[in-house]
Structures are given as C-alpha cells and as structure tokens.
What does this fold into?
Amino acid sequence: MDVVLLSRLQFAAATMFHFLFVPLTLGLSIIMAVMETKYVRTGDELYLKMTKFWGKLFLINFALGVVTGITLEFQFGTNWSRYSAYVGDIFGALLAIEASVAFFLESTLIGVWIFGWKKLSAKAHATVMWLVAAAGNISAIWILTANGWMQHPVGFTIRDGRAELVSFTAVLFNKFAILEFFHQISSALLLGSFFVMGVSAYHLLKKRHTDFFTRSFNIALVFGLISSFSTAFTGDLHGTHVAEVQPSKLAAMEAHWETSTRAPLHMFAIPDEENETNKVQIGSIPGLLSILAKHDLNAEVIGLKDIPKDERPPVLITFAAFRTMVGLGTLFPILMIIGWIKRKKLLESTGYLKIMVASTLLPYIAMEAGWVLAEVGRQPWIVYGLMKTSDAASPVASSQVLTSLIAFILIYSLLGAVGFYLMFTNAVKGPAQAVKE
It folds into this structure.
C-alpha cells in the first residue's frame, strides 16, 4: 500500500480514537464545576456526592484522553516530517503553546482537585474545578487554532521554500479557527450533557437513587438545551464561511456538480464521481443550498465540475459525513425540548428515558462525523490551497507505517476495552458504590 495512504489511516485511527475522550473532558468538566458550586452555595451533601460520582467517570475518561493524545504530536515528526519542515514555524509554535501551557496547567490542576479534598476549603476546591474546565477549553483553543490554520492558512509568507510566520495575530484571530472553536465547544458541552442524562436515565428507569439522578439529569438538561441550539447556530455560521474559503468542500458536502444560482439542496444522493453526477438524487429543494451557503436565494454556488479533479475531496464520504452530522444535530434540540417539558415528571416518562439511554452515543457519532467532514473534505490538501497531503508524508518504507498502524490498532483496542469497561461498570454502579460517604 502507498505510504501516504497508510500514514493517513494511522493518523485517522489515532485521532478518531483520541477524539472519543476529548469532548467529554471539555463538556463534563463544566457540568461538574456547576455541581460543585451548587454544593458550596447550598451545603447540600447530595451535590458533593454528584461531583464525586461524575468526577470518577471524568478522571477515567481524562486518563484515556491523555494516553491516546500524546502519540498524535509525535506523528508530525515520524509520519509527516515533510509537512513539519514546511510549516513547522507556524504549526509547531501553536502545538508547543498548547502542550507547555494549557495541557500542563490542566494536568496540574486536576492533580490538585484529586488530592485537595481535605486540604482546600470547599470554595477553593470548587474554584480549582472551574480552572480545570477553563484550562481544558484553553487547550482546545490552541489545537483548533492550529487546525483552523490548516483549513484556511493566514499570516504567513513563503521564504526559502517554507512557510514562515509573519503575523501571529492573524493566525490567532483566524475566522475559520474561531468558528471551529465555538462549534466544537458547543458540541462538547452537548456531548457531556447527553452523557450525564443517559447514565441518569438508566438509573431512573431502575428507580435507583432517584433524587440524585433526577437532579443530575436536570442540570445536564439545561446545558443540553442551550448547547443543542448553539451548536446548530455556530454550525450554520461555520458552514457559510466554509462556502467562502473552501468551495470544494462545500460542493462535496452537497454532492453539487454544476455551478449555478439558486442552487438546489439534495436531501439524499449517491454521488458517481467517475461520471460527475449523482446516481440517485432524492428530495431536491431548489434554491435551498444558495440560502444555506450564502444566505441569499440568488447566490451562485460553485459546482465540482468547475474544480480540477485533482483538487476535489472524496465526495461520497464528505456527503455522508455531513448528512450524518446535520441529521443528528437536528434531532438533539428536539430531544432537549421534550426533556424540558417532561423534566418534572421524569420517573413517569419511561419512554423518553429509554430514548435518552439509547441516545447517549449519538453525540459521539455526530462529532466523529464532523471531524471526518472537516479532514476528508479538506483533501487533497493538508494545508488548504498551500500543500497537498501527498507532498507531506515522511520518506519512509510502507512496511514501517503498516507495522506501526497495526500496533496502534491493537494497543488502542486494548486501551479502549479497559477504559470503556471501567467507565461502564462505574456508571452502572451508582453513587452509593462509587462514592465513599
């Protein structure tokens, strides 16, 4: 197999596995900070038990996120050395700031939070939890700034055959990165909310610790209701910017082949990339793509036929990932509105509780689909419009990458099995077993 393809598969496997843990860390940390703050303000021991119960699940998740994330940055030297040599002046600086400032700060604060229960006042301990949440989200800022630069490179010049930074401000305030950050953080908070509501719904169906899990559910519900709408709103803003700076991605997202005004949106399609058409096309709505992409019924949307074949992303994968993300993103606010209506009668709403247990994994699927859309939709560019992925891989033997790819899959599968087992068993035990009173 081609070394570029193998390197892409390895990075994709490592990234997508790592991304199973990052959003929950970001979202759950905020919910936990609210729970602990409620304990400080009210003195109600139930909120303390809630903080410790959800905190145990948070720590298992965080540990897995750390272990699976460390290897990612090394791949820029092992698998993508040509990329690092070309844009390391910009990309490397952003990753260095994330690791040496935000991540180290977050890790240190988590240590203080774990061992500080009897050494800090209740108010100081709750403050540490807020700082943990802030540090995690600051870490996300730098990672997404780096990714945003790859999606829409700004603030650089080409000198002596490599990209060099000329405006750190332009990179930091890159509109693509800012919109990506707010969309991802909203999504992470939504995922954290669904996680808490799903586990809570499981126990409420079994009529166990009903006060504990009713309060947990309702706290998460507030965040879920807000974040479900903010995720859709930021996604719309992000989509219009993608239409502006990445027309090839937009065209692939919608399987849109012909450049046209009043461009139609296809609810479902099966793209035929060889013949540059759609084999199946169902539910086409005239003008809707122009409205969604540029908020203008008469706007022109570039079709794939006007983009060189060697600069088009894989259409089927991009189209399917986008439809998966948007379809689930439409479902989430509906579930949250129903939950808000039923929040005072949760124990009687067994049907809704069963749906929420089954829906626990849906935000994971939506976020993974979003990352597939972002990264596959950017192809064949590793830095959009600047450097192609085929030019970025390290000059190593395919056999070396294949060996490491197999090793990654085996090791990560083992880590995942252990981690998910610990998460599951501690989640179903409930607070009486998971928390020492």
The longest helix spans residues 210-245. Confidence is low (pLDDT under 50) at residues 433-437.
